[in-house]
Task: inverse folding
């Protein structure tokens, strides 16, 4: 494993399953841009649905395609919100990495949701899930 974390396997499993589901169109450059999600945006949306905390809003009228995740704790458009990272059991890791490369970087450089799901599963779910 590339980093020592004690993930919330139930919540990470939900994330992996949704990444594989085809429910969300994949995008890049922000958590939610133009109706498309990066892999971290998918985790954020699952968190929102599961907890009822937060909402997607427009922050900048000049960039209406970028949605900001707003919650009582923070506003975030680019990185995994800290409360979502904590919900996943990643602590304060708002830019999770596997094998030295961030998931956001992998997403933005062409890895599919299914490929990212495979990486997450191998990294955080395969040992005595």
Result:
């Amino acid at each position: 494993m590339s980093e020592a974390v004690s993930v919330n396997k139930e919540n990470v499993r939900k994330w992996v399953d949704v990444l594989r589901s085809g429910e969300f169109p994949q995008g890049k450059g922000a958590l939610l841009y133009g109706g498309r999600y990066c892999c971290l945006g998918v985790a954020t949306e699952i968190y929102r649905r599961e907890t009822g905390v937060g909402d997607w809003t427009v922050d900048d009228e000049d960039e209406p395609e970028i949605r900001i995740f707003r919650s009582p704790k923070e506003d975030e458009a680019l990185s995994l919100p800290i409360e979502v990272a904590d919900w996943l059991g990643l602590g304060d890791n708002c830019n999770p990495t596997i094998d030295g490369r961030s998931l956001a970087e992998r997403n933005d450089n062409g890895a599919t949701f299914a490929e990212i799901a495979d990486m997450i599963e191998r990294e955080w779910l395969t040992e005595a899930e």
Q: What stands out?
A: DSSP finds five helices and seven strands in the chain. The beta strands are 32-33, 36-37, 55-58, 67-70, 75-76, 97-98, 101-102. The two ends are 15 Å apart (CA to CA).
